[in-house]
Specification:
Helix content is 32%, strand content 19%. The chain has 11 helices and 12 strands. Helix 3 (124-127) links the parallel strand 5 and strand 6 (138-140).
C-alpha cells in the first residue's frame, strides 16, 4: 500500500512505521473526505498508515499533506483495519461488505445502513459504547442534522425523560456538498445585479436563476424542501430526524414533528426545538446539564456563521415553554461538515482504538 507518492507507509501523524491501525478513507477527495484527512492529522490519530481512496479519475492525485489517492479497487483494500466511508450510499452498499470481508471495521457516513437493526448508529458522546457491538462489522454515522441535536437531547433526557420533539431545521447549502455551495455562490451575483427586484418583483428575480442542486433558487431565499418525498408529504430528510433520534437515544416511542428548510448559509445547520419531557423543566438546571455534556457549548444567540469550523454543537435561546411547564424551547447549531459528518467518524475510530477493538 502506498501512502504519499511513494512506497512504504505514510502515517498521518508524520511518524514512520507505526504499529497502529491502517485507516482507509473512501471518498477522500470530497468535502467531507478531505476534512476527515485533516482531522486525522490535527487530532494525531495513531495510524500506522492512512490510505485515501477514490474513483479511478482521482487516482494518483496528491492531497494536502502529501497523501496520494489510490483507486477504490479490490486490489487496494486488503490490510485496512478501519475503513471510513464518505462516498454516497451506493458506494457504501457495494464496497463496505468487501472491506469487512478483508478484515476492516467500516464507519459509514451515508444513509445506507442507518436503519439496519444490526448496525449501530453512533454519536460518540451519546452511545459510543455501541462501537463494541458490530455484528456486520459496520458502524453508521447519523444524518448531519440529527447529529447536531443528539448530544443536547441526551443531556436533557438523562435529567427529565424526553417524550417528544418539534424540530425545525435551517440547513446550510453545504449539506448538499460542494455543488450546493457552488450553486449559492453562483446565484448571488445575478440576484445582486437586480437588487430592486428582490424588494418589489421577487418572482422576476427568482426566474433569473436556475436551481439544479436545491429544490428552488436559494440565494436570498429559504426553501422548505430537502430530499425526496415520502409518505404523508414528508421528505426522507425529515423522516430521518424521527427514525434516527429514536434509534440513537433508544427511545422507540419518541414522537417527532420534523420540518427541514434549506437556507442561504454555506456551512452550519441550525435546529429550533420544542422538547417535551416527563417532568417539569427548570432552565438553570437544564443549562447546567447541557454545559456538562461533552461536545456541547452554550451561547445566548448562536449562529451558524460564528460556529462554522468549531467542533462543538452549541445551544442557545433556552426558554421554558409558554404553555407547557414540561417543555423547553431551544436553538441548536452545529457545523455539518465537522460534528455533522467528519468529526464524529474520527471520534468513532478513536473509540475503536481506545477500547482495543482494532490493532494498536
Amino acid at each position: 500500500m502506498t501512502g504519499a507518492g511513494g512506497e512504504g507507509t505514510c502515517p498521518v501523524t508524520g511518524q514512520g512505521g507505526g504499529s497502529g491501525p491502517i485507516v482507509g478513507i473512501v471518498g477522500a477527495t470530497g468535502a467531507v473526505g478531505t476534512t476527515m484527512l485533516r482531522l486525522l492529522r490535527d487530532r494525531r490519530f495513531p495510524a500506522a498508515e492512512v490510505v485515501p481512496l477514490a474513483s479511478a479519475r482521482s487516482a494518483g492525485k496528491v492531497l494536502d499533506g502529501g497523501l496520494k489517492v489510490e483507486e477504490l479497487a479490490d486490489r487496494n483494500i486488503g490490510g485496512i483495519d478501519i475503513a471510513i466511508f464518505s462516498a454516497g450510499g451506493s458506494i457504501s452498499r457495494e464496497w463496505a461488505p468487501k472491506f469487512v470481508e478483508k478484515g476492516a471495521i467500516v464507519i459509514d457516513n451515508s444513509s445506507a445502513f442507518r436503519a439496519d437493526p444490526e448496525v449501530p448508529l453512533v454519536v460518540s458522546e451519546v452511545n459510543g459504547d455501541l462501537v463494541a457491538q458490530t455484528p456486520k462489522g459496520i458502524i453508521a454515522n447519523p444524518n448531519c442534522t440529527t447529529m447536531a441535536f443528539m448530544p443536547p437531547m441526551k443531556a436533557l433526557h438523562d435529567v427529565y425523560g424526553l417524550r417528544s420533539l418539534v424540530a425545525s431545521s435551517y440547513q446550510a447549502v453545504g449539506g448538499a456538498g460542494q455543488k450546493g455551495m457552488d450553486e449559492l455562490a453562483e446565484q448571488i451575483p445575478t440576484m445582486l445585479g437586480q437588487r430592486e427586484k428582490l424588494v418589489d418583483a421577487g418572482a422576476e428575480a427568482y426566474a433569473s436563476v436556475t436551481a439544479s442542486v436545491h429544490a428552488k433558487p436559494i440565494a436570498f431565499n429559504v426553501v422548505p424542501w430537502l430530499g425526496s418525498e415520502k409518505e404523508g408529504g414528508y421528505t426522507d430528510e425529515e423522516l430521518k430526524m424521527l427514525s434516527e433520534s429514536r434509534k440513537i437515544l433508544d427511545l422507540p416511542e419518541l414522537t417527532v414533528a420534523p420540518t427541514c428548510v434549506r437556507v442561504p448559509v454555506m456551512v452550519g445547520h441550525a435546529i429550533a426545538i420544542r422538547a417535551t419531557f416527563a417532568r417539569e423543566v427548570d432552565v438553570d438546571e437544564a443549562k447546567a446539564a447541557l454545559a456538562a455534556m461533552p461536545g456541547v457549548a452554550l451561547d445566548d444567540v448562536p449562529t451558524p456563521l460564528e460556529w462554522a469550523g468549531r467542533d462543538e454543537v452549541v445551544v442557545g435561546r433556552i426558554r421554558k415553554d409558554l404553555a407547557d411547564p414540561c417543555s423547553l424551547n431551544l436553538f441548536v447549531v452545529g457545523d455539518n461538515l465537522l460534528k455533522g459528518a467528519a468529526l464524529n467518524t474520527i471520534q468513532i475510530a478513536e473509540l475503536l482504538v481506545e477500547k482495543g477493538l482494532v490493532r494498536t
